[in-house]
């Protein structure tokens, strides 16, 4: 992994992205998005995660995060490990999931191709953390993150998308308690 993609300063916020292997559109169902929301809430309450912004798209997640005590890479590792197992289990147990066999086949195939996995691989390797070292960079990443659902054509205004912190930044209340930046 390039030194450009590591957490150098644990005191600063970082922009990170988790992407589903093969860019598979998993987060088209509410129950899979709720696993992410619950995991983020858990890590805020129990692991020292500081969440400044977030959005769940159909095949990736963007976060702006910090930490109180535990190294960010450890928190992200735990989030990815837990959510990958929970989402794969939810897909496997969802009798309404029309793409169940297809998705599980891909996750298993990706898992076998990577010796770091026990069986399946849900998330792509890495998080590509970008240190947010200036107000200009923070504003740019917040804007980018919150406008993803608008760019995708899902909503006309960022705060109309439920699975994002854009509501909080627009003066409302979102699904997860976050720390507002700047």
Task: Give your account of this protein's structure.
This is REP element-mobilizing transposase RayT. Residues 9-127 form the Transposase IS200-like domain. One of its GO terms (molecular function) is sequence-specific DNA binding. This protein is α+β, with helices and mostly antiparallel strands. The protein has a domain at 14-134: Transposase IS200-like (Alpha-Beta Plaits, 2-Layer Sandwich), CATH 3.30.70. It contains 5 helices and 4 strands, in the order βαββααβαα. A 4-stranded antiparallel beta sheet has the order 2-3-1-4, with helices on both faces. β2 (49-56) and β3 (60-67) form a beta hairpin. α1 (30-46) runs antiparallel to α2 (72-93). The chain starts with 13 loop residues before the first strand and ends in a 13-residue tail after the last helix. 32% of the residues are buried. The model has no long low-confidence stretch (mean pLDDT 93).
Query: Order of strands across the biggest sheet?
Result: 2-3-1-4
Number of helices: 5
CATH topology of the domain at 14-134: Alpha-Beta Plaits
* Text of the CATH class of the domain at 14-134: Alpha Beta
Along the chain, the helix and strand elements come as EHEEHHEHH
CATH architecture verdict of the domain at 14-134: 2-Layer Sandwich
Mean pLDDT: 93
Briefly summarize what is shown.
The protein is α+β, with helices and mostly antiparallel strands and 182 residues long. It is 40% helix and 13% strand. A hairpin with a 3-residue loop joins β2 (49-56) and β3.
